[in-house]
Design a protein that fits this description.
The chain has 157 residues and is an alpha+beta fold. It is built from four helices and eight strands; from the N terminus they run βαααββββββαβ. The strands form two sheets. It has a four-stranded antiparallel beta sheet with strand order 1-2-3-4, with helices on one face. Strands 7-6-5-8 form a four-stranded mixed beta sheet, with helices on one face. The longest helix is centred in the first third of the chain and has 24 residues. It is elongated, with a radius of gyration of 21 Å.
């Protein structure tokens, strides 16, 4: 089985856009630092300035992370493990083949059930449907190679 890597984001940003994101994030943090240093006296009188500064710093940090690619969502399927990053904010989850007990494949999601009955769900959504079938096929092939039970289910409302 060849290792497979699928990007779960709706689109891939170009290198130019990622550089602009990192620069914009740096500018946001620089402006917040400038206001902290040179407007400190007025900030004690106006608490909304603190809210603005915190927002600028957090937004700048997110833009830098997005520019460096740290916020990308993906699933990487290797010989003996699946690496899943399903959120822009949280770290990736590694699911070794010997820990996965069962896979439940739904039309718009995949549920990984571990041997201790912990569920990890990958939801695809409706915006980027081209990636659903290739991911399902690769996950099914991974399960067959590693002796994992696969159940295809229909979602009930």
């Amino acid at each position: 089985m060849q290792p497979a890597h699928f990007n779960l984001d709706p689109k891939e940003n170009s290198r130019f856009v990622r550089i602009l994101q990192a620069i914009f994030g740096t500018v946001c943090i620089a402006i917040a630092t400038y206001w902290l240093i040179f407007q400190y006296g007025s900030m004690t009188a106006d608490p909304t300035m603190w809210i603005t500064m915190v927002f600028l710093v957090l937004f700048g940090a997110y833009q830098i992370a997005a520019g460096t690619g740290a916020t990308r969502k993906y699933i990487s399927i290797e010989q003996d493990k699946i690496i899943l990053k399903k959120s822009s904010f949280f770290p990736s989850v590694t699911l070794p083949a010997d820990v996965i007990r069962k896979l439940e494949i739904f039309p718009l999601s995949i549920c990984f059930i571990s041997k201790n009955n912990k569920k990890t769900v990958l939801r695809f959504g409706l915006n980027y449907t081209e990636i659903i079938n290739p991911v399902k096929d690769s996950v099914t092939e991974f399960a067959e190679k590693n002796g994992i039970v696969v159940e295809e289910k229909k979602e009930e409302i």
